[in-house]
């Protein structure tokens, strides 16, 4: 380089100094500007505008000097590129913000919204640029390395033992050379990779690969095999900490034993092991079923917990009483509150084995068990009824397969096989979501399959390694693409941070020691993968599901986070014993649940940890953690207690009993079929009945929004709530020969919106024959008001048009739309598509795998439970039902409410307060308030 270029280098090195000015100025200006929204604090505006001008100017200078630093010195790689681009974008957006601000102040733009939007966007891009800059300066794991579990992979003193061992050897074996090389690479990984990796090639030196280490950089060869004193890398690490050329910089000098190991490695020929470097802790793949310790406890889980308690000086608490246990068991196994009779019978039962008998009874309640656990599996397998991908056909449900599998208690290994090597009914899991438009390489469907299987079934984060080598595990970009290639019909090219690197992936499973998955076709590869994954030797698969079930029942996993199964368990023997026992049970999920629930550990009083840190990093098991009801459990409890919360389900396990579908007038505008317009529409269906005696004739009708029903010219019913199925006996209005059903339907609203009639008529004759008439395309309709006799069977409707079939996508399957007798069943929340109420209570969207839900209450949940229109309407409608059912008897209402909600009678104090609040003549509003005050009680909302 020409000597005169030093000035450019100097200017470039001013970049770190200048870059802090726009960060501080623009961020403070943004905060000041937000504080003036609504015309407040007008005095801040002059200072705010000055800071924006100054921040924009400094951002331009910072971007320019950063460009000089990049071009004049030894920075390269994707991370540098991205930091540069976002820095330049910040300067451009800040300049645009100034132009918009000037135009606004001069009146050419009417308000400040565009200016504030531009300023907000500037701050967002500035934040990204700053984060990337911090990654360049401190390493890409600068933030994540301090997170719990991410700083345990490297002990800087552990090389001492290896060094002592190797120094005592006259010559090193291949095994010793491998150990030495892996330890040296671990030292480089934790001290050098942040500046010398494929993303940030400072000095054109790459130290995270064999090729990079031996290629060297701008200073020449880094390693001279056999001669440490002639190796540039050794020279740099042995310089004085104050020397400008010392490596690593930033006061992170290597320890003497680390330097000695690197010297020994070079001296012995700089051998490079073929083994994969394990920078982070990694659990053994295979399970080891520990021998149960000697203990006074009977249950195997308790024997292991007894050892844990002794080691941690914890005294066994007393188990919970029967009333608490029966409620906990019901909510955990079937997701429903026990009815008062069940509670009373259980409390008074003197059988010593009654808890085991209860667990068996609940596990054998297959439908309720399935409908409760369906929510867990839907979260885990990213399965849902509606949402992203369903409208465009880019996503497929596995609900029917999943429901049937749980109902029949299919073995877990078989479930995994059918998910990984799917049939048509289970293929939605690995097919993922085909996102509309252009997506990055890490979200292509093959990579989604790898990510989903990795996270859901194996507890490993493939997502991070889909973009670059993982910062939180030993998983590499090459491994993740090898895994994704199993699901690809062509060879995949590796993309690092969405940029192709010219390297093609080789098909491989994350744990090749379990067996090969290579084959010519996808079908063969999936079969091999399904066989390899379920091997008993794959302890990761069985530890993961065991850990997830423990967390579901106990509130906290044996390993946390649940998706990082290489983290340290609080009791490794307990986890491996349970997972091994699960395998021995032929992968029986119900056996796993029972094994946990039969333990004293499960039956201990719940523990309420005040500090979230006590649950995460410094956790000590003392009993189950206090859990809130899930969104589905709370909804179902309200349905049991007050009234059914949801009218329809997205998935009906019993199938559609009736082929009826919602119909409406076919609206056409400009030769296009459009949504129905508000207003009245008229519908007719004419049919002929034989000369037979009718024993019964029952009609089911639901109309969105309202209707008037006529049979043969006689008005029979009106309705204005489509969620309520009206069941009408119409035997007397029918006759032999020609009959006509006529319906006047009204679509409310101010703009076009979905509307529909759902109707079914079942006629049973005395000889046992049946006739069923359903709403379908054979009905006719008109939008114009017809003549007065349009409801009679003699009316000529030949000019009326055929109706349009709207299906049930907008309304779901009404659970009451049946001719069967129903014994108190209601729409279970797990079968209902995403609803605003459940979303507010924490049900996830399921666009991503969700392995645990946040237990912390949110402001949105508080608002929904206090002021939410939907919830208050449910309570109001329920109050009407209760007042009629209990004949406005306040004492009876209070007693029944507590028995059903809490499993106990109210105390004298509670009884007095509640009865006093209701009064002698309780109104709907008073009872509605009583419901609300009961449902928000911790005793009701928490699983104690």
UniProtKB/TrEMBL annotation:
Say which species the protein is native to.
Zobellia amurskyensis
GO MF entry, a single one: heme binding
**Cross-referenced PANTHER family, in alphabetical order?**
CYCLOINULO-OLIGOSACCHARIDE FRUCTANOTRANSFERASE-RELATED (PTHR35889), F-BOX DOMAIN-CONTAINING PROTEIN (PTHR35889:SF3)
| InterPro entries linked to this entry | Cyt_c-like_dom (IPR009056), Cyt_c-like_dom_sf (IPR036909), Cyt_c_Planctomycete-type (IPR011429), DUF1549 (IPR011444), DUF1553 (IPR022655), DUF2231_TM (IPR019251), Galactose-bd-like_sf (IPR008979)
Q: Which UniProt keywords apply?
A: Heme, Iron, Membrane, Metal-binding, Transmembrane, Transmembrane helix
Pinpoint the Cytochrome c domain residues: 154-270
Transmembrane segments annotated in the record for this chain: 20-38, 50-69, 84-102, 114-134
Q: Which domain of life is it from?
A: Bacteria
| Pfam families tied to this protein | DUF2231, PSCyt1, PSCyt2, PSD1
Report what the protein is called: DUF1549 domain-containing protein
């Amino acid at each position: 380089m020409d000597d005169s270029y030093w000035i450019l280098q100097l200017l470039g090195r001013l970049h770190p100094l200048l870059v802090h000015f726009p960060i501080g100025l623009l961020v403070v200006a943004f905060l000041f500007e937000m504080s003036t929204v609504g015309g407040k604090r007008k005095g801040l505006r002059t200072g705010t505008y000055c800071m924006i001008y100054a921040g924009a100017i400094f951002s331009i200078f910072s971007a320019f000097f950063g460009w000089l630093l990049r071009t004049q010195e030894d920075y390269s790689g994707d991370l540098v590129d991205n930091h540069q681009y976002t820095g330049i974008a910040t300067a451009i957006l800040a300049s645009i913000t100034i132009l918009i601000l000037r135009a606004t102040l001069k009146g050419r733009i009417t308000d400040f919204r565009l200016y504030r939007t531009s300023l907000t966007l500037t701050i967002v891009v500035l934040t990204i640029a700053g984060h990337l800059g911090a990654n360049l300066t401190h390493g890409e794991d600068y933030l994540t390395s301090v997170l719990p579990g991410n700083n345990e992979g490297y002990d800087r003193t552990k090389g001492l033992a290896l060094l002592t061992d190797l120094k005592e050897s006259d010559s090193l074996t291949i095994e010793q050379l491998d150990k030495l090389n892996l330890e040296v690479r671990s030292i480089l990984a934790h001290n050098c990779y942040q500046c010398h990796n494929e993303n940030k090639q400072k000095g054109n030196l790459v130290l995270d690969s064999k090729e990079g280490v031996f290629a060297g950089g701008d200073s020449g060869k880094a390693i001279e095999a056999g001669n440490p004193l002639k190796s540039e890398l050794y020279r740099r690490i042995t310089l004085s900490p104050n020397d400008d050329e010392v490596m690593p910089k930033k006061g992170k000098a290597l320890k003497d034993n680390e330097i000695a190991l690197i010297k020994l490695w070079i001296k012995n020929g700089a051998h490079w092991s073929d083994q994969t470097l394990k920078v982070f802790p990694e659990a053994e793949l295979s399970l080891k079923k520990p021998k149960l310790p000697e203990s006074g406890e009977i249950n195997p889980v308790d024997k292991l917990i007894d050892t844990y308690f002794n080691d941690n000086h914890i005294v066994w608490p007393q188990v919970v009483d029967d009333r608490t246990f029966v409620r906990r068991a019901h909510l955990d196994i079937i997701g429903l509150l026990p009815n008062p009779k069940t509670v009373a019978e259980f409390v008074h039962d003197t059988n010593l084995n009654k808890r085991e008998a209860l667990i068996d009874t609940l596990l054998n309640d297959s439908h309720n068990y399935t409908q409760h656990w369906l929510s867990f599996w839907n979260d885990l397998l990213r399965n849902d009824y509606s949402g992203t991908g369903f409208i465009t056909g880019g996503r497929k449900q596995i609900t029917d397969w999943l429901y049937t599998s749980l109902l029949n208690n299919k073995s877990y290994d078989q479930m995994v096989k059918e998910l990984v090597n799917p049939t048509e009914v289970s293929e939605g899991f690995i097919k993922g979501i085909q996102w509309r438009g252009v997506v990055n390489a890490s979200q292509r469907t093959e990579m989604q399959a790898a990510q989903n299987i990795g996270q859901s079934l194996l507890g490993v984060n493939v997502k991070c390694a889909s973009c670059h080598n993982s910062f939180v595990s030993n998983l590499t970009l090459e491994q993740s693409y090898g895994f994704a290639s199993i699901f690809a019909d062509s060879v995949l090219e590796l993309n690092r941070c969405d940029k192709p690197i010219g390297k093609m992936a080789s098909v491989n499973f994350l744990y090749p020691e379990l067996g090969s998955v290579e084959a010519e076709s996808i079908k063969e590869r999936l079969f091999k993968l399904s066989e390899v994954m379920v091997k008993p030797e794959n302890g990761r698969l069985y530890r993961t599901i065991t850990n997830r079930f423990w967390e579901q029942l106990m509130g906290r996993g044996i390993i946390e986070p649940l998706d990082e199964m290489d983290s340290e368990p609080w009791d490794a023997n307990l986890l491996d014993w349970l997972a091994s026992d699960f395998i021995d049970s032929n992968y029986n999920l119900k056996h796993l649940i029972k094994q946990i629930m039969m333990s004293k550990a499960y039956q201990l009083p719940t523990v309420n940890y005040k500090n979230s840190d006590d649950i995460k990093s410094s956790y000590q098991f003392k009993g189950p953690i206090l859990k809130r009801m899930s969104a589905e459990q709370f909804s179902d409890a309200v349905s049991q207690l007050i009234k059914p919360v949801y009218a329809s389900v997205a998935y009906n396990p019993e199938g559609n009993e009736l082929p009826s579908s919602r119909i409406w007038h076919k609206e056409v505008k400009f030769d296009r079929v459009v949504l129905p317009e508000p207003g009245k529409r008229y519908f007719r269906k004419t049919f002929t009945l034989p000369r037979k005696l009718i024993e019964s004739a029952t009609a089911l009708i639901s109309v969105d929004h309202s209707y008037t029903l006529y049979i043969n010219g006689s008005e029979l019913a009106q309705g204005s709530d489509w969620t309520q199925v009206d069941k009408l006996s119409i035997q007397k209005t029918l006759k032999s020969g020609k009959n006509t059903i006529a319906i006047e339907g009204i679509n409310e609203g101010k703009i076009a919106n979905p509307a529909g009639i759902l109707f079914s008529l079942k006629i049973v004759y005395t000889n046992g024959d049946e006739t069923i008439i359903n709403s379908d395309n054979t009905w006719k309709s008109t939008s114009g008001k017809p003549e007065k006799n349009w409801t009679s069977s003699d009316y000529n409707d030949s000019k009326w048009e055929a109706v349009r079939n709207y299906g049930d996508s907008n309304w779901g399957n009404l659970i009451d739309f049946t001719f069967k007798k129903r014994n108190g069943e209601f729409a279970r929340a797990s079968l209902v598509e995403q609803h605003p109420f459940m979303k507010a209570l924490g049900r996830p969207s399921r666009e991503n795998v969700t392995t645990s839900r946040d237990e912390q209450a949110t402001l949105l949940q508080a608002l929904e439970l206090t002021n939410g229109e939907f919830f208050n309407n449910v309570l109001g409608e329920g109050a009407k039902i209760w007042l009629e059912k209990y004949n406005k008897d306040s004492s009876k209402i209070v007693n029944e409410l507590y028995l059903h909600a809490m499993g106990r009678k109210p105390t004298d104090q509670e009884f007095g307060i509640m009865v006093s609040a209701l009064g002698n003549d309780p109104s709907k509003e008073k009872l509605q308030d009583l419901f609300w005050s009961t449902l928000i009680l911790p005793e009701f909302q928490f699983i104690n």
